[in-house]
C-alpha cells in the first residue's frame, strides 16, 4: 500500500492527463519528511516536474523546501490537486476537508488506497476523483504519450 510501482504498458487516462496538464499546485496529505518514503519520493518527482508542492503533515516546519501546513483547513489559497497518502479508512474525513479547499479540481488517492465513501463525497462536490493510482506513475504515462 501507498507505494508507486513503475508504469506498465497501460495507456494513460486522458482525463488524468488533462488535470495534470492544467494544474500547478498539489497539496500532499501525509507527505513524510523521510526521503525513503513513497510520499516523499512522489512529491519530489512532481516538484521536479514544476508543480508547487504544499506539504500537509502534523509535524515539521519544512519538507522538500516548502512550508508545512498542519491540515487542509489551514489553506486559504487555491490548490489544484489534493494527493492523499493515508490509510483508506482515514480518507473520508480528509476528502470532506479537501472539497472545501479553494480551487480543488481533483482528489487523488494513491496506489493501494480506495474508499467508496470518499468517492461519493468528491462526486457529490463535483470534483474529479482518482483512487488506487500513483500520481507520479500517471504523470510518467501522460508524458510518454505526449499528453502534457
Written account of the structure:
- Helix 1 packs across helix 5 and helix 3 packs parallel to helix 4 (116-124).
- The chain has a single domain (14-144), classed as NAD(P)-binding Rossmann-like Domain (Rossmann fold, 3-Layer(aba) Sandwich).
- It has helices spanning 14-21, 38-48, 91-98, 116-124, 135-144, and strands at 25-29, 52-56, 62-63, 66-67, 81-84, 106-109, 128-130.
- With 148 residues, the chain is α/β, with parallel strands linked by helices.
- The longest helix has 11 residues, at 38-48.
- The model has no long low-confidence stretch (mean pLDDT 94).
- Helix content is 31%, strand content 17%.
- The strands form two sheets. A five-stranded parallel beta sheet has the order 2-1-5-6-7, with helices on both faces.
What are the SSEs and their pairings?
Blueprint: H1 14-21, E1 25-29, H2 38-48, E2 52-56, E3 62-63, E4 66-67, E5 81-84, H3 91-98, E6 106-109, H4 116-124, E7 128-130, H5 135-144
Helix pairs in contact: 1-5, 3-4
The largest β sheet comes out as: 5 strands, parallel
Strand order of the largest sheet: 2-1-5-6-7
Question: Terminal Cα separation, in Å?
Answer: 27 Å
What is the count of helical runs?
5
> Helicity range of the residues?
25-40%
Q: What number of structural domains do the residues give? A: 1
- Overall 3D geometry? globular
Unreliable spans are none
Binned strand content:
15-25%
- Rg, alpha carbons: 14 Å
Count of DSSP strands: 7
How does CATH name the architecture?
3-Layer(aba) Sandwich
- The quaternary state of the protein chains shown equals single chain
Specify the CATH homologous superfamily: NAD(P)-binding Rossmann-like Domain
Question: Topology as H/E string?
Answer: HEHEEEEHEHEH
Q: Mean pLDDT, nearest integer?
A: 94
Give the helix/strand class: alpha/beta
What is the CATH class?
Alpha Beta
CATH topology: Rossmann fold
